[in-house]
Amino acid sequence: MYPRVIIDSQKYRHNVVQMKTLLETQGVELIPVTKGFCAWPELVGVIEQEGIERVADSRLENFEAMGETKLKKLMLRLPMLSQIERLVRHTDLCLVSERVAIEAIDAEALKQDKDYDMILMIDLGDLREGLLEEQVDAFFQELKPLQRAHLSGIGVNLTCFGGVIPEVETLNRLLAIRAHIQSTYGYTLDVVSGGNSSSVYLAMQHKLPQGVNMLRIGETLALGTESSYGEVLPGYHTDVFTLEAELIEVRRKPSKPWGLIGMDAFGEVPNHEDLGPMLRGILAIGRQDVSFEKLKPRQDIQLLGSSSDHLIVDLHEGAYKVGDILQFDVSYGSMLQLMTSPYVKKETI
Ligand SMILES: *Cc1c(COP(=O)(O)O)cnc(C)c1O
Q: How many CA atoms lie within 13 A of 88 on its CB side?
């Protein structure tokens, strides 16, 4: 059944073990992030089998689907006030930046008779979640004493919106803010969560400042790449995920459309270059499954464009026939789309 994604759980295991070992020697806890593959059960199983204690995701649905597991659950996305009951019931800790959410979590934890941990996010330039440094004092001056929800860490997220790369100084800022909060407001912030796969290059160079003791890592484990510079990490598998799609037409055709040209299926006016006749293929996969721009074919072919259900390719005169299966590497964005699409079959090996 095609299109399908083949998920190699042994290659994922290898990446998890490599990263866990690298971070352990630096006193840093690896928190695998599962949101990019919708917490695919076999990969969550690998995480659990490798002796990891905590897993992170950004969707409560993914945590709820994990069911019985020893893993403690870290919710990455800031809480929705409308979901506090489910959040406290199904997870053990979360990232926070808003006082109103913290107070709602505390009230709910009291109600559920449960202790709950929270990591306070600081925005160090990427402009997604977190308090600005100059907002920290006002935040703590207004925060009421908490009963069952505990601010037990501080964290930062980078290279998601603003593309800001974590540097040694960036993480030293985080440590300085933590020291200030601890000495001024009496909180003990044991956890210092130093970012995501964009902090991996610092770990590889053993440059994470002393005191950073957690990284939340999705991409590197799934794709073998770090996300500050897009480098492939030596010794990591880049083919945990393989996309396969089936050829449904193989024909020699011109490369330039003819007739009166209007819009394509997505409202754009196409402008196709005339490269002469070529052997063209159509694959049974389309934009409803994945944005083709992010796919890397493993065969020598070129992706020309796609509509909702078709991907048109230049087969570079290769010996292909209808029914052949072509393979692709996936990127972070395409993994996310493919794993989310109900039309794409998934198979774990
Ligand atoms: C998604 C996410 C991560 C993991 O990011 P990767 O680049 O996949 O490692 C870490 N932290 C937060 C807050 C996230 O939203």
A: 23
